[in-house]
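Exercise 3.2. Students should predict the tertiary structure of the chain below and write it as C-alpha cells, then compare their answer with the key that follows.

Predict this chain's 3D structure.
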Amino acid sequence: MLKKLWSPTGLLLQDINFKQGLNLIIGSAKDGQSHGTNGIGKSSIVRLIDYLLLSSDTAKIFDEKKYAFLKEQGHQVCLLLENGGELLEIRRSFGEPKKVYIRENIQAEYPYEIEEAKKLLSRKFFPQSTERKYPEGSYRNLMNFFVKDDLTSVKRNDPIAYLQHGGAKKSLLILLNLYLLGLSSAHLNDLLKTWETTEELTREVKVLQKHLETSGKPISQLRSELAVKGKELALIRQSLNEFKLNDSFKKISERIAELDEQLASLRKKERQTGNQLEKLKKFTESSQSEIDVDDVRKQYESVALDLGRIVRKSLEEVLDFRASITRERLKFYGNRMTELSSEHKKLLAEIQEKDAQRAGLMKTIDDNMDMSLTEAWGRYALESAKIAEIRQRLDGIEKIHAELGRMQHDESMHHMQIQLALSEYSESVETIRSLFNEIVAAAFEDIRYEAKGVYLDISTPGQLKNRNVPVKIEIGFPHIEALGQTKLKTVIYDLTVFLNAVRENIPLPDFLIHDGVFHGIEIRKKVNLLNYIHKQSEQGGFQYITTFNEDEIQIGDLDRNRGINYRFDLDSNIIVNLKDKPGEMLFGFRF
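Answer key:
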C-alpha cells in the first residue's frame, strides 16, 4: 500500500498521506474563478506516483516545456509504500532522469539505473510461478494496470486493452490479463515465444531466398541446375585427370585438385567458425554488461533480508555464491571463445598457405603449358565455389524449413496445453464471473433493468484461425455506445481484476489508482460503486485511490429525493482537496 508522497525540495503544497481503503483526491472550483479545476494538480499527483514507479510515459510528460521548472529548480519527489511486509522508499530527481534511488526497510538508500530498478520492482510486485508467467521486461506493462492517469482513461474503450502503446498486441494483452486474474499464463507465454521464433526464422529464410533469386530463377529450378552443374564439374575434373601430361605435370595437376578440395572444405569450416565466434562475442558482450561487481552487490542487497529468512546466510556468502556463478560463466564462455578464435586464425592461415601453394603450382603450369589447362582449372575452381555457395544457402533454407515444421508442432502443443490449463482453472474462472456479477449488481442497484445482458466470459474458442490467440476474454455490456457505459464497463472490469487478487491472495500490488475514469458515469451508479468499494475495504486490506472534480460527486436534494446517498462519511475519505486558488494548488500555481 502507498504510505506517503512528498517532496524534500518543497515542490508540493503538502505531504500526501494515504490510508487503507478509499482515498479521494478532489479538485474544487472557487466561486468567481473561471478556470475550474483543470491544471490545479489532481492528475499530477497520479503522474508523480507513476513517475516514481518508473513510467516512461510520465517521464516524457514531465519533460515538456510547461514542467521545465521541475528540472530548473532541482526538484525531487519521494514515495513510501509497503509491499508484502517490506517498506520501500523511492526517490527521483527531475535533474537525473536516468536514475532512481531506492531504500528497502532500514537499509541504506541505493542508486539504480532505471532498467535495473524495473527488474528489482518486477520481482517484488509481480512474482512469477510455474503457472503464471509473462514476457521478460513486462514490469511497466503490468504496473500500468494499477496506475492509470486521465490520458489513458480517455483513450481506453476496451477494458482488456488497458495498454495504449504500439507494442500492445492483442495476444500480449490477453496474456497479461490472464496473469493479473491469477489464471495460467505460462503456456500462452510459451506460444508467444514460438510465434516470435517463427517470425525470426521466416525473415531469415526470406533473406536466403532473396540472395538465390537474384539470378532470376526460382528455388526449384536452382535445385535442378545444381545437379546438372555437379555433373559438368565431374566431367571437367575427369578431363583434367585424364589430360596427357608427363609425370611431373601429372603430379602437379593431381596436387592442384587436392588443394581445391582442401580449400573448399577449409573455407566452409572458416565461415562456420567465424559465424559461431561472432554470435558468441555478441552473447558474451551482452552478458558481461550485466555482470559487474557493483551490479551483483546491488542485486543481492535488494533481496538480502528475504534470503536471510530462508537460508540464514550472510550477505557476504550470497555475494560469494553469485560471484562464483559469474566466474564459471565467464570461464566457460571465455574458454570457448579462445578456442574458436584460435581455430579461426589457424583456418585462415591454412587457407592462405594452401592458396599460395596453388598459385605457385598454377604458375608452373603457366610457364610450361598453354593457357588452356590454366583456364580449365580456373573454370573448375570458379564453378566449384559457386555451387558450394548455392548449396550452402539451399541447405540453410532446408534447415530453417525443418525448424519451422518443429515450430508448428510446438504451436499445436501449446494450444492444447492452454486449453487444458484453462479447464483446470474452471473454478477460478467461475469465481471471477461471480465477482464481476456482484460488482455489476452493486453498480446497478435500484436500476437492475439496465444490467440485463451484462456478462464476463473467459473461454478457449474451439476453431482457431492462423495466429489467433486461443483464449478469449469478452465483456458484454448494454448500450455501450454511451460514454458513461464505456467508462462504467472499464471501472467494473478493473475492480473485478483487483478485488479478485485481494480476495484470492494473488501476489500483486494492493493498490489501484484511477484518474478521470468516472467521467460521464451517471451519479447513481457512481455513488453505488463508491459505496461498494468502501464496504469491501472494511473487509480486506487494499487501497483504492481515485480523482474527482468536486461537482462530480456532490449529491443535491433532488438526488437524495431519488434515494441516492453515500453510506459512509465522504469527507473522511478525502486525502487531499485542491482548490482553484494559487495557494491551494498542488504546485502553488496553475500550470
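Discussion points: The chain is about 60% helix and 10% strand. The CA atoms of residues 23 and 207 lie 57 Å apart.
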